[in-house]
Amino acid sequence: MGSIHDLFRRHGLVRQSEGRILGGVCAGLGRRVGLDPWPARLLFVLVLLVVPGCQLLLYPILWIVMPKAQPDDVMTHQAPPTWPTPS
Fold first, then answer.
1. What is the pTM (predicted TM-score) of this model?
2. CA distance 32 to 11
3. What are the φ and ψ backbone dihedral angles of 36, each rounded to 5 degrees?
4. What are the Cα distances from residue 51, in Å, to 23, 44, 47, 62, 70?
5. Which of 22, 27, 34, 85 has its CA 20 to 30 A from that of 56?
6. Burial of 59 from C-beta contacts in 10 A (0-12 / 13-18 / 19+)
7. In this structure, how many other beta carbons lie within 10 angstroms of the beta carbon of residue 66?
């Protein structure tokens, strides 16, 4: 299981200890894509309403697979990539 945790940690997918409500999964996913925790949770609920069921299975799996953030896992909100403007 350590290799899966290392893979997720390398890609920045860690459960956050700050701003978490249940397991920190939505906060961690939101931080990875550049969202605050609340919009990430709302997006999770909206997807749950559109495609019922699969997220209820996915959330506990991610809770187990995603490693807990450590102090050296400093991730800041990164701005989305900017595309060059045509001149």
1. 0.64
2. 8
3. -70, 165
4. 21, 10, 6, 18, 33
5. 34
6. middle
7. 22
Tokens read off for 76 = 């800041």
Which structure tokens are listed for 16? 């956050």
Q: Answer yes or no: are the C-beta atoms of 23 and 71 closer than 8 Å.
A: no
C-alpha span between 30 and 53 (Å, rounded): 20
Burial class (CB in 10 A: 0-12, 13-18, 19+), 15: buried
Please report, as a single letter, which amino acid is at residue 53. G
Q: Which residue has the tokens 């506990």?
A: 60
Helix, strand, coil % (nearest 5) of the chain? 50, 0, 45
Per-residue pLDDT of the chain (87 residues; tens, 9 = 90+): 568 878 777 777 788 777 677 788 888 888 888 888 888 889 888 887 887 777 678 888 888 888 887 766 555 444 445 556 666
Instruction: Name the residue among 65, 54, 52, 77 with its Cα closest to residue 25.
Output: 65
